[in-house]
Amino acid sequence: RISRKNLEGVQITLPTFEEQQKIGSFFKQLDDTIALHQRKLDLLKEQKKGFLQKMFVS
């Protein structure tokens, strides 16, 4: 348990608004990059499936 007295002595620092904006922008860019690579991976999987079908049908 944490008592109220102990909790009052805890100092919490938060990033500035500008830092929060930069952090948010970084994670959005990271999400966009992941989504782009996921689409590329999906296309490559489809291409692989097509090549395997051609290989066994011919």
DSSP strand count: 0
The arrangement of helices and strands along the chain is: HH
Output the radius of gyration: 25 Å
Summarize the biggest pleated sheet.
Answer: none
Q: Give the termini separation.
A: 71 Å
Q: What integer is the average pLDDT? A: 94
Helix count, DSSP H or I runs of 4 or more residues: 2
* Structural class computed from helices and strand pairing: mainly alpha
The helix fraction, in percent, is over 70%
How large a portion of the residues is in β-strands, by DSSP E? Answer: under 5%
Low-confidence spans = none
Envelope shape:
elongated
Describe what this molecule looks like in 3D:
Helix content is 79%, strand content 0%. With 58 residues, it is mostly helical.
Structure keywords:
single chain; 58 residues; mainly alpha; elongated
Describe how the helices and strands are arranged.
Layout: H1 4-8, H2 17-57
Outline of this structure?
The chain is mainly alpha-helical and 58 residues long. It is 79% helix and 0% strand.
